[in-house]
Amino acid sequence: MPIQYYIFLSLALFSIGVMGTMMRRNAIIIFMCIELMLNAVNLLMVAFSNYWENSNAQIFVFFIMVVAAAEVAVGLAIITLVYRKVNSVDINILNRLKN
Amino acid sequence: MNLHQLVFWILSVIAIGGALGVILSRNPVASVLFLIVTFFAVSGHYILLNAQFLAIVNIIVYAGAIMVLFLYVIMLMNLNGDVEPQKSKLLQFAGIISGGILFLVLLAAFKTTQLSTTPINASTSIGLISELGQVLFTRFVFPFEISSILFLSAMVGAVVIGKKD
Known about the structure:
The complex is a heterodimer.
Chain A: H1 3-23, H2 27-52, H3 56-86
Chain B: H1 3-24, H2 28-48, H3 52-77, H4 89-111, H5 129-136, H6 141-162
Helix pairs in contact in B: 1-2, 2-3
């Protein structure tokens, strides 16, 4: 397949992730949309790695997965902590952090 | 249309449909399951792109570990579609419009990129684990060791944040 198709596919996935972060109020869903955006970038990187026949980009994708796993572990711990304090995962509730 | 293109289109439709399901379904558990479908479709794309190792790692790490973590958290909080907070229709509409505009701008920017449109070479072995391991443990050995420290700190951080006080 031409590389343009992969570019357009990952653009669509990334834009859907951006839309999700702006549309939803559930903190967990917003987290999942961020994962979706990361995966769109990974797909583009793998496509270009194959295009240039260079494996460095695949190593980058590997490290992105590593960072995403660490980020999810800490982020879900924070969401669980917030849920225990205010009994909700609604991001509008988190306005209380201001005071 | 040969088999490769057919598989590409099917996987693309599954991936985008799953992504739309993530942001449109009211029930968070359904969102997680749609996201797993999307990850499987992306793994199929990796196999089409000769990145076999990444395809397996994507399934094991994302669909296997991270999504199970999400499901456990949703199960612990007992979330379902009835208690799901919803933004107002106006804000949802604004989100869709701005996301669509972002998509159009990116599409217009990338449409004019000058790359040769030769088909992607389908006979390379750069995605195999021997090749990737060679690169990972020679050129990228220092970031590899740093990522172990990152994992250690993430683990300690998650335990410290998550423990009862």
